[in-house]
Amino acid sequence: MNNLFDLTGRVAVVTGGGRGIGRDIARTLAGAGAELAIAELDPGTAQDCANELRENGHSALAVETDVRRADSVEQMTRRVMDEFGKIDILVCNAGIARNSLVENTPDDEWREIMSINVDGVFYCCRAVGRRMLERGSGAIVNIASMSGSIVNKPQPQAAYNASKAAVIMLTKSMAAEWAQRGVRVNSVSPGYISTEMTRRGMENDDWRRTWMEMIPMGRLGTPMEIAHAVWYLASDAASYATGTDLIVDGGYTSW
Ligand code: NDP
Question: In the chain, what are the domains?
């Protein structure tokens, strides 16, 4: 039987692949056989990730990219096309979270969240999606969040929640537009995952206690547990899946 999870010969781009969840997504896709481009704001962590993948025998390229800027995303796309000749898989993972009450949220904080979490996903999907449509083939996985479907407790994060709801709806809209042109678009929505993003919250006794009470599994997820869900949606095993939002949250949204 064919191994539908095999990614040998595929080219994958992971935004924000230098650390956190993105780094384990890069490791997982490379481990499945893909050639990787790490599109990351910090050239140091991007290079570090690419070096690690190469040391493990994989093909990898670091591309300094600011997903907030359409010109930077276009440059990254051209660089990957020049290097590998095609892009089969795009994972839009770069994202930030902030915790402010709505009435105290400054304009620049709102804009910063929207520009990375929403504009960034749109620019990357548009630039890479164009190349995928030309070839009539591709799989896009956007990292949304359970916060796109529920309101977290107890921390305030309205802008983040709204940005992730936008990612889920943008994903569905692109999936519908491109479904008959060979390009699948899905999202993975993590619950609380052990990365830099959740570290501050875990150090706050009130937040940590509430989070643990509200997660049926009673623990944070690992970045690898998100990477495996991305692997599925990026692979041929998910050939009939498009426009779906795969929630991986230890049961959080079940209650
Ligand atoms: P981290 O903060 O650990 O990593 C975020 C990554 O995004 C970093 O590599 C960062 O690069 C990159 N990034 C930030 N801004 C830009 C930019 N302008 N251009 C390119 N890259 C950028 O976060 P996580 O790994 O925890 O989160 C990854 C994704 O998962 C995010 O979209 C997040 O919203 C989502 N998520 C995370 C959850 C969690 O509990 N951790 C829960 C639900 C969703 P740099 O190092 O240069 O800053």
Answer: 11-247 (3.40.50.720)
